[in-house]
Amino acid sequence: MRALLILLEVIKELSTARIQRTRASLQTAAMEVLHVLGKIYFEKVQTWMNFFQHGGDDEGGAIDSIEQSLLALRALRRLLIAGWDFPNRSSEVQSAWGLLIGHFKDMLALATDESSSIHANIRLLVEKHLRQIAKLHQNLAKDHPVGFTLLPDSIELITAYWSLISQFGESFGSQTTGAANSKNGDDGGDQSMPIMEYLSLKGLLLLRACVRMVFNPAQTFKYQQAQDKEEKSRSRQLVRQTLLTESFAQTMMQTLVTRFFVFRSRDLHDWQEQPEEWERKEEGEDNVWEFSIRSCAEKLFLELMLNYKAHLVQPLIAEFANVASK
Amino acid sequence: MLEDKIDFGSFLNGTLAHEVQARQPGYNIIRRRIAIVLGKWLLVKKGLDRPLIYQIFQFILDKRDPLNDLVVRITAGRQLKNIILPFEFSIQTFRPYCATITGHLMALINEVELGETKLALLNTLTTLVQSMEDEVSHASFTASSTRS
User: Fold this and answer.
1) Cβ B131 vs Cβ B89: under 8 Å
2) Which residues of B are less than 8 Å from A317 in CB distance?
3) CB neighbour list of residue A58: distance below 8 Å, 6 or more residues apart
4) Which chain A residues are within 8 Å of B7, Cβ to Cβ?
5) B111 CB near a chain A CB, below 8 Å?
């Protein structure tokens, strides 16, 4: 455990270093570290997954395993994001990616299974795994949008996130507690936000990253090599044609406006009572809006509106008015 | 491309311009959204009806209208920066709105307390000054001297 913890801290340091040389040293070791970490992570997950799905004798061992796999996962996440300039080009990363997507689905099933008898603490730990993987997805899409889309099953992944978002949307407006939209919505939101809300949030951010990648080419343009250009153009085409079609864009816009544009009472309250702070959170420089579903929905909607034919604008304004008068 | 212009143009002239003047409660929410949409649009769409957009911003920056609460006005103040950037900007087109908008903006800067927000609004003011070159100083002195 301790070794894992140390490894995590080292990776954290190296991946957030400002000096290019430091980060480069992480990249040279990345492959090997991935092997080690991947193995630990995989084995531990197998252990506890087996136990909680099928039962067994060694509950203590299963609990240890889940704590260890979480630690390994935290390190893995940072490694995958910072360890490769072109993550999609590495077959090891591709396998790890595919594996994690599989786990994501399994863990989600486990965490959301109402009839399951697993202890609340365990469920929480499973959720923490989910949060890590979701963070990986979102960060990778943000830092390596081309790489992200060209990794296996990414498009299906995003589609899966959308189903999650749609499902979550059904109950969103009716929630009055709004833990995530609270005044301290930044770090506090991370763990206190219910898992479905958290995953929906990450999904929205993912979608936004994709839309921006397709329609705002300039910002992702770091390298000029032929292969980079080819990948870039291929990924844009892929996303535009298989994911971000006109009809999907309209589906998204409809859902966003009707489900997620709702201002919860907390929002309205803060707007009135603390207008400057509220506005700053929405439009200010430090990206606090990334922790609010409504803000993310608005930003995604804006990107869609800018880039797709405005078929829905009339009904949308009517929708705004409906929402505003509630 | 042409279809693009028609879509956004008529949406702006028809729907948006109409909605921004609506007076029902809750329309402050719409005014805020309109300011944001316009701010983003001008960055990427060509050929929009700028005088109309300036008029809209002048309208929602006015404190005398109670629907223009602080959030609406700060949002407008922030987005104003995008609509007066040098790209496709013509001093002549903006001139009729300059004095009033500058006056509203400066009053707003004085009104807000949060440092970050003040700074963001000052950025807008800076852009305004840059885009209007010599004309702003005169306009702003006139506007602030008539303010009570």
Assistant:
1) yes
2) 15, 19, 30
3) A51
4) 309-310, 313
5) no
pLDDT digits (tens, 9 = 90+) for B13-33: 778 888 889 888 888 988 998
Q: What is the ipTM of this complex?
A: 0.86
Nearest to A165 by CA among A212, A129, A199, A128: A199
Sign, CA torsion A229/A230/A234/A235: negative
Nearest alpha carbon to residue A134 among A115, A111, A117, A150: A111
Q: Does A305 touch chain B (CB under 8 A)?
A: yes
To 10 degrees, what angle do helices B27-44 and A293-307 make?
Answer: 50
Amino acid at A325: S
* pTM of the complete model: 0.84
Termini Cα distance of chain A: 52
Instruction: Look at residues A140, A283, A286, A305 and name the one whose alpha carbon lies nearest to residue A220.
Output: A140
Q: How far apart are CA B135 and CA B98, in angstroms?
A: 9
Selected residues 31-60 of chain B with any CB under 8 Å from a CB in chain A: 33, 36-37, 40-41, 44-45
Q: Answer yes or no: do A321 and B30 touch at CB < 8 A.
A: yes
Query: Token digits for B58?
Result: 């002048």
Using left for φ > 0, alpha for ψ between -120 and 50, and beta otherwise, residue A293 falls in alpha
Average pLDDT over every residue of A286-312: 83
